[in-house]
Task: structure prediction
Amino acid sequence: MMAAAPKESEQNGDAPEARIVVGLDTSLVTRDALALAARLAASVDARLKGIFVEDENLLHLASLPFAREISFSGEIRELDAERMLRAMKAQAESARRMLARIASEAHIDWSFDVRRGRPLAALAEHAVEDDTLVIRAAGTGSREVGRTVRAATREAHADVLLVARGAGMKSALVPPAPSMRGTLQSPLPGRPVAAIDDGSSPGEACSAFAETLAARIGAPFMRLAARGLSPADLATASRQGGVGILVVDAGWLGNDDDAARLSAAAGCPVLLLGKERGPVEGPQKRGG
Result:
């Protein structure tokens, strides 16, 4: 009997459920991040949630009487808040269709939401402990990325998968085959899962989590001893080691700039753990 196609759904009931939450627009960078988020959701049997944020700063700018826009043809005209809002709604619908297509290809359930606010802050605002937020650092100030990471990991105790432009999103995980739903697929050969271990209890737990994750996907595991080394040193070691995913306890980071700088310099997605965790468990079947 053929299984039903994955569809848009929302979580019901009181039981927590793992979600991979990704901010959406219609850029090529977003498509790569969404594809990575979908592969991760399929790997750990989580739902994929896409969020399109209507940027309140742009809407405020459009309402100012002196605001102007220049078209591709060079035409200058007044900005109109209603027209900009209609354009955002059209973009949101395009993003929803992109989400639906990629989720269908990965055979995972998905949901979609539209919020208004600042794009990064809106992702962290409703984060819960069982979420993994996929945050793109491209084109955003490192301080703003850091504030969002801190809110998600230290206040909501969610995890964050931080990616930067050119950070190896396509090679971090190969796309899961339809017959292998619920199992984590191997990264490309030679792309290990690495953990930053500073010798503390959270660092050791982070290492245990990453090592079991690597075993599940059939990838090499690499432990990066952090004692006495800076984030820049470890980013260099990660890049030189060809790391596919770098796993870090979020509490190890120092100031707000560290997360974005580490993601940009490491050359791979960085998974920041917001809570102390043990080894990865095997995939669980959903009821119904």
